[in-house]
């Protein structure tokens, strides 16, 4: 028995160490993730303890750092802005170069159609395959948008490998190649990730150089939240929209005091980004990226508003369809076992195939001629925001500038057909392309499709009312519709309203504010009612540990209470637990924290203890040193003057078997073997004794105030509190007595509705009974009554123990990943 | 003794009732306020209990309401937007009418300077005096901006009379008169208040008509927060800026899920507001309020950016000076006892005098000719945002429209002198005018001053570089500087960056985004370092119960812990408290909630009980019914068949003295008197007995999980938690033992630094000792040790009781008002 369990413990310890060292978890999607929810309260606690950790040594140094923290915030934000602007500019330059190269190849080979086709197709296939392979080898975490992961990280979940230098390199190079290929992919989501990577790496660098304040977690979270704003801001040169978009997309509750950080960093970054463009002689001064020149006096007629509203509603449906399509493609491929297996083995086949298909369809001399295939995203957008009306020729506009609108005109085909083909083809192409395992976002493609759809509606309106609605004074501006459509569709897909601000900053004109706002709000209303946002959809696909929002339509949530969802078999230790209980607890469960209660009868919650603390307690109790002491003691007592040198020098207490192997080949005398066996038995006895002792919590770090809920707390309130405080789990108490535990997992289940599947109905049968008490619920009274009686010294019939309080099964673990 | 305490209790109960009924508190500023902090947790609890309050009767009805809640949210927001747009439009109309009337009077009397002067001066004096008198009589709460109060209300503090119909009427009429007078006052702050009033009244109305969902507090808070956005949004027809401004100004932590409400309502409101203007034939279509026509191709040169940055920094200093001046004026008047007394008696003298002074100085034929005195705020702003350069005549601009820039030109005086005079005079005038007891804000005047300052800088730049910085191609646009200055100064005064968005929406152009952002951020950085925001300054002046922000520079706060600021003499009741203890507790303190602990030795916190609950417990114990029962019992036991009819029918148990008076004039026999005296004595004995009984908490509503902190929690974390959850107080526990309490008051003191005055230094002498423990602090270990010992049945030397645990003095009360 001795050998078994010590070995078990040894194996367990090794496993535990290994788990802690790299801790990778393989999930169904083939991605390797390292997730562990950290209570933000713990972070906060660390935060405050951090500056004083080595207080006696460097108190004055800490003080100095604290005082100069404001300055360092500024410096950090400026550096971050600078870095991101540089990254953004260099990437833009490289992407433009790639695209030019493709055009040049395509143009140079116009004598031979086949060669031209091969060049047109092979170029993106090579780039995308390289991008997929490179990220796969270097850092698979770099795949995809990055916004869902950032949302999860800002929620307080640590996805450690998402913020490493390797990921940064993989993301930047992979993204450059992916965008350079001309596929319908966006850079906005990845930029949020890149900016966060920059911030994290910069933090690490600053911490290594300056130490102190750069070390703590809470500050890093604040900086990450600013970094998200920088990412969007310098991607579109839209600081305000960037801040708002990043808040909407990544936060549940936003601390207004962090607002200025985002604004400052995003503005600085956008400024430097645009300055670099100017310094490169590309532009004369800093203006908007997609400058429009709509007339200011009469931007739109009031009678056009219904058309804008319809455009918004249509975009809402379109956005929901896009999210559905995107998720459906991923789920389909996952369900088809054979496809899935094949694709998992040959990871590069899928992106290559998709790229081949998309680039074949956009081949300009082929089908691409009907859908402006030769234009890049940027050129298409500039053309779509054009202030000329395409369907009517010969209208003299006051401004004239280089535009690519001729690409949209085909001698045989109507402009409407071109636009419709463009919208339909790009729609599914974007939905498919964004499922490729390369760093890419979906915002820009969606934005482009929205602009095209808006342009279509605008052109239809211009055809219907060729002289404007009120007569010949103010004709309809289809470009305005394009702006509205772009904002509405991207708003619908991402469930944000700040895309309105982004389009104003992108176009440099705010004259269409009212139609844009109306369309964006309507699109959001429709899309939110039908589908989750694209980012929430990806969170679900990737099964990231995130707490979903309480939807607007789910009002039955107000009727679910904590007692309906809580896990009642809480694992706890009591003040009079023995080390054996502790060991059992550690061996049978994987909880990160355990509750500490006064005793089994009172169950009064005293605090919570981290698993690691308990492990160290246990290993301290059975430590080598104490074992040696015991053996020395034993030896002295037995009068044996040989203190078993071989045993004490070589053996490790956790693996006495190894000791046997070590010693057996050596030339040991029979006496030594006997003595060894005796001592092994004695050690086993000693360990038994040690395990039977009561745990001494003196050297154990206890969280003395873990978050508590009561049974009557509603799901709505629980959700709010978990979101606000970034909790991972909370104990449910009733008059100080621990009665259950609720973790993110239970909460997520309840919100996603699977709680109704597992037996608990929306309103459980006994629910009305609960409300029948006049002022206080029945259970409360009973608990109180017991406490009173216990206190007043009356004898209380001892409750039957909960039959399997230890069998707190796997699925009730707070940290599901 | 019997008579004394029952009377005391009776008086106390009456006082309590009166306090609850109208609860007015008079503070130094002569304002009557009704403040009581409500724990938002309590609200949340109510929220969830609300739909099921009468569950057995109307469960299905509740369900129906819950399901249709989303729809009702939309309806509510649409109604709110409609209402506010109408109010805004009607008020604008009335204000414009008033201002026209003044101009007409002034114009019609131009033959006689004296008559003209009298007309010019008397008109605003009458209006302002009426406004001041009207609000004073009807609802003094309508005075001032309203944003500080809304900030406090959204923080979770109930300022009840701030959201009544009377206040609404007073605010709307008072504001119309005040703005119609042409004084340098703004409508933005009051509009936030008016919108909140609308929302509150609408909620009440809907609750009265539909019931159910409209009743609960949490929803009202959500709606109030949307209302603030509507207020700003429809005041400036700036929905996005309105939402952001209201978030920055009123929230500490913002729930992103409430974002769309604000956007929707503000957009709808702005739309209807502008639609009304169009329908009134004032404008052709919906455009910006202060439309600018700056060139789009080259809005500014990059070399101009330093000038914009300097403008921003100067505006930062200016903003801080404005806040300082405004507060200083109020404080000066308060300190001068004689002035203060005089003004308190003659409330209308001060506004009349200020108005007289200001209007005299702006009299157009007098000093006003040097500072464009005849222009209204709106006209001035239109002129300042003009795209022409004033200092150079004869520059042909492509656009030409009606502008008031000629008012700024004086035959003898340079345009620079006019602008400087305008800025200086308006600066102090606005600072003084906003201290008048009328409904008014300071945003618009400050915005105007900023625009004038920007125009001044712009004109200086245009004079220095008459051909533009790069040559004759692109001259400098001083109007752009005016836009930047307006955003920067208003941003500095209010400590917001969203003024940038507001100016874009106000002017309808976003081309100057970069200079505006740079100037606003710099202005904010400077102003935040020097002074609190105007609204925080007013909160301090009015002594509203608000938790101040943790400033950026106050990093010593990280070193203050809860144990340094907590009140150690917590008032508590134990499970074995007698009713006498309860009575004593209720008589000696004014706490809203009391802690419930297990027993005096363990001090384990079980929950908290509201004062009202305890009062009802006590009155139940000494209730008339029980008293009568006792008397009947007594009568039966004594064999007396006369059940003392007079005593039982007339007497109220709390005032037996009244009973004596009642009975003495009647023709009572000696026997009756004797019997009465006997029974009085018996009642006294009975009450004594009753009071000695242990409290039965069965029928008492206990909050079983009040918020707990630990001694080591830092001030920073405490502040975050209080802000996040809107707490009023939190208990400090150590391993479940109650050791102290922290309320808003202590926290505010600590943040404002007065904690250093009362003896606790920034870092107390023993602080380093705390950090010397390796893993757990000394006190924790001790506590745990005690618990362990207690639990394991070892005898523990009984601690000396805290000497005056009952003397939880007045100043440690959580609710300071």
Automatic annotation (TrEMBL), chains A, B:
Keywords: CBS domain, Chloride, Chloride channel, Ion channel, Ion transport, Membrane, Repeat, Transmembrane, Transmembrane helix, Transport
Keyword Repeat: yes
UniProt-annotated location(s): Membrane
Gene Ontology terms, MF aspect: voltage-gated chloride channel activity
Cross-referenced InterPro entries: CBS_dom_sf, Cl-channel_core, Cl_channel_volt-gated, ClC
Transmembrane segments: 74-96, 117-139, 191-211, 223-247, 259-276, 305-327, 348-367, 413-433, 440-458, 478-503, 510-530
GO cellular component terms listed in the entry, alphabetical order: cell junction; chloride channel complex; plasma membrane
Domain of life from the UniProt record: Eukaryota
Topology in the lipid bilayer: Multi-pass membrane protein
PANTHER family per the UniProt record, alphabetical: CHLORIDE CHANNEL PROTEIN 2
Protein name according to UniProt: Chloride channel, voltage-sensitive 2a
Organism whose genome encodes this protein: Xiphophorus couchianus
């Amino acid at each position: 028995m001795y050998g078994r369990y010590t070995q078990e413990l040894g194996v367990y310890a090794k496993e535990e160490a290994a788990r802690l060292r790299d801790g990778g978890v393989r999930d169904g999607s083939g991605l390797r993730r390292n997730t562990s929810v950290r209570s933000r309260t713990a972070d906060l606690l660390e935060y405050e303890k951090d500056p004083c950790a080595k207080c006696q040594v460097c108190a004055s140094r800490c003080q100095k750092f604290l005082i100069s923290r404001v300055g360092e915030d500024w410096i950090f934000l400026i550096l971050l802005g600078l870095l991101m602007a540089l990254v953004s500019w260099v990437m833009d330059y490289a992407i433009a170069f790639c695209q030019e190269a493709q055009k040049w190849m395509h143009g140079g080979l116009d004598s031979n159609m086949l060669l031209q086709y091969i060049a047109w197709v092979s170029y993106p296939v090579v780039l995308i395959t390289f991008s997929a392979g490179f990220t796969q080898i270097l850092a698979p975490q770099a795949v995809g948008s990055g916004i869902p992961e950032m949302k999860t990280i800002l929620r307080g979940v640590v996805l450690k490998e998402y913020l490493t230098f390797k990921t940064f390199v993989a993301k930047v190079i992979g993204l450059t190649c992916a965008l350079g290929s001309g596929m319908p992919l966006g850079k906005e989501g990845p930029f949020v990730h890149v900016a966060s990577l920059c911030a994290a790496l910069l933090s690490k660098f600053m911490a290594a150089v300056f130490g102190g304040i750069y070390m703590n977690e809470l500050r890093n979270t604040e900086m990450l939240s600013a970094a998200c704003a920088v990412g969007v801001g310098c991607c579109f040169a839209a600081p305000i929209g960037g801040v708002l978009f990043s808040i909407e997309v990544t936060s549940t509750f936003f601390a207004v005091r962090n607002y200025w950080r985002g604004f400052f960093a995003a503005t600085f970054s956008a400024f430097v980004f645009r300055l670099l463009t100017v310094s490169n002689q590309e532009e004369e001064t800093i203006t908007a990226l997609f400058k429009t020149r709509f007339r200011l006096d009469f931007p739109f007629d009031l009678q056009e508003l219904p058309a804008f509203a319809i455009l918004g509603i249509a975009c809402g449906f379109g956005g929901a369809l896009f999210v559905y399509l995107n998720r459906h493609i991923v789920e389909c491929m996952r369900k088809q076992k054979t496809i899935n297996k094949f694709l998992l083995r040959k990871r590069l086949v899928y992106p290559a195939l998709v790229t081949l298909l998309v680039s074949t369809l956009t081949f300009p001399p082929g089908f691409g001629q009907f859908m402006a295939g030769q234009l890049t995203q940027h050129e298409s957008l500039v053309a779509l925001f054009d202030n000329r009306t395409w369907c009517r020729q010969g209208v003299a506009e006051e401004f004239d500038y280089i535009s690519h609108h001729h690409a949209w005109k085909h001698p045989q085909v109507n402009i409407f057909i071109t636009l419709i083909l463009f919208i339909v083809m790009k729609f599914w192409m974007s939905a498919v392309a964004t499922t490729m395992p390369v760093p890419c976002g979906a915002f820009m493609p969606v934005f482009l499709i929205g602009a095209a759809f808006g342009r279509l509606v605008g052109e239809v309106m211009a055809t219907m009312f060729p002289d404007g609605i009120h007569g010949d004074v103010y004709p309809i501006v289809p470009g305005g519709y394009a702006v509205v459509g772009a904002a509405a569709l991207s708003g619908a897909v991402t469930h944000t309203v700040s895309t309105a601000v982004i389009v104003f900053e992108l176009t440099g004109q705010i004259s269409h504010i009212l139609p844009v706002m109306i369309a964006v709000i309507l699109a959001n209303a429709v899309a939110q009612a039908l589908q989750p946002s694209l980012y929430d959809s990806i969170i679900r696909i990737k099964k990231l540990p995130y707490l979903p929002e309480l939807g607007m339509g789910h009002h039955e949530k107000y009727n679910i209470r904590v007692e309906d969802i809580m896990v009642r078999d809480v694992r706890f230790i009591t003040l009079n637990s023995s080390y054996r209980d502790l060991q059992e607890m550690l061996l049978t469960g994987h909880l990160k924290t355990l509750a500490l209660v006064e005793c089994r009868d009172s169950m009064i919650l005293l605090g919570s203890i981290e698993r690691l603390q308990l492990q160290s307690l246990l290993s301290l109790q059975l430590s080598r040193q104490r074992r040696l002491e015991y053996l020395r003691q034993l030896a002295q007592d037995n009068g044996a003057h040989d203190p078993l040198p071989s045993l004490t020098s070589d053996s490790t207490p956790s693996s006495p078997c190894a000791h046997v192997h070590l010693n057996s080949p050596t030339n040991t005398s029979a006496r030594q073997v006997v003595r060894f066996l005796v001592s092994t038995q004695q050690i086993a006895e000693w360990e038994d004794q040690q395990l039977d002792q009561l745990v001494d919590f003196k050297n154990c770090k206890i969280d003395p105030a873990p978050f508590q809920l009561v049974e009557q707390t509603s799901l709505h309130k629980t959700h709010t509190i978990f979101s606000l405080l970034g909790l991972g789990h909370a104990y449910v108490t009733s008059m100080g007595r621990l009665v259950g535990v609720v973790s993110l997992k239970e909460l997520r289940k309840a919100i996603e509705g699977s709680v109704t599947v597992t037996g608990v109905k929306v309103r459980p049968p006994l629910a009305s009974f609960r409300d029948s008490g006049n002022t206080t619920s029945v259970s409360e009274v009973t608990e109180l009554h017991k406490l009173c009686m216990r206190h007043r010294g009356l004898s209380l019939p001892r409750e039957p123990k909960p039959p399997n309080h230890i069998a707190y099964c796997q699925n009730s673990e707070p940290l599901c990943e």
